[in-house]
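Supplementary Methods. Inverse-folding protocol.

Structures were first reduced to a discrete structure-token string of length 230. This string, shown here, constituted the complete conditioning input.
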């Protein structure tokens, strides 16, 4: 190689290395910045008094709390919707909390209900959970994962989980000034489904999807509106 060309070659390599170093520094700075901005209650067991404080800001029906770092703090806008999901599994609240504590999964929900009807909180209502493949929806919605007692097929959920889901929906509506739920079958209603925002998911599964009209009617009846449809 001629000396002039060799010099050009070295220059390009140095430019490339400098580019890599700068990109790495920017990524590192972004990671550090996002960690520093996480509330100190995420990713660890809370003390009893911290749990009491959290319950005051959220549903008093919760029996388990493990706050996930996978969320936007705080959410943008006010809560206007509920989005019901299924776990696609029969996980305990503790197992799901462990999944949501993994930052690489980039997933979370505000609440979950297990097959025994116990309720957990992973992302406080004031923050946006990463659940429904839609930033816009999740900034407006409280999201709820429900455990399945049948894996595959209809993705059935237990009667205990179903009853706890209704009670949780009523509680969320009451505290957030939502006067009633309206399931329209599309994203215009205030009861939405994950599958409305992503083509590659069946979530919340056929069983829960068929119950949406009943869930809305039952919640509305308990909120003091129209009678529930039997
Ligand atoms: Zn889902």
């Amino acid at each position: 190689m001629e000396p002039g060309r060799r010099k050009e070659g070295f220059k390009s390599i140095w430019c490339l290395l400098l580019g890599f170093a700068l990109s790495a520094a920017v990524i590192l700075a972004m990671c550090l910045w996002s960690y520093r901005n996480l509330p100190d209650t995420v990713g660890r067991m809370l003390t009893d008094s911290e749990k009491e404080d959290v319950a005051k800001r959220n549903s008093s029906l919760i029996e388990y709390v493990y706050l996930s770092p996978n969320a936007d703090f705080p959410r943008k806008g006010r809560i206007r919707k509920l989005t019901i999901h299924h776990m696609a599994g029969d996980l305990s609240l503790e197992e799901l909390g462990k999944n949501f504590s993994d930052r690489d999964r980039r997933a979370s929900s505000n609440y979950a209900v297990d097959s025994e009807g116990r309720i957990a909180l992973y992302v406080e209502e004031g923050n946006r959970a990463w659940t429904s493949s839609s930033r816009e929806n999740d900034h407006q919605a409280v999201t709820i994962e429900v455990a399945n007692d049948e894996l595959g097929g209809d993705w059935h959920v237990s009667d205990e989980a179903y009853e706890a889901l209704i009670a949780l929906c009523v509680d969320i509506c009451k505290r957030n000034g939502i006067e009633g739920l309206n399931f329209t079958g599309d994203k215009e209603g205030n009861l939405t489904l994950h599958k409305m925002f992503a083509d590659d998911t069946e979530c919340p599964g056929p069983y829960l999807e068929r119950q949406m009209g009943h869930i809305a009617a039952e919640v509305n009846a308990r909120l003091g509106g129209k009678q529930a449809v039997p």
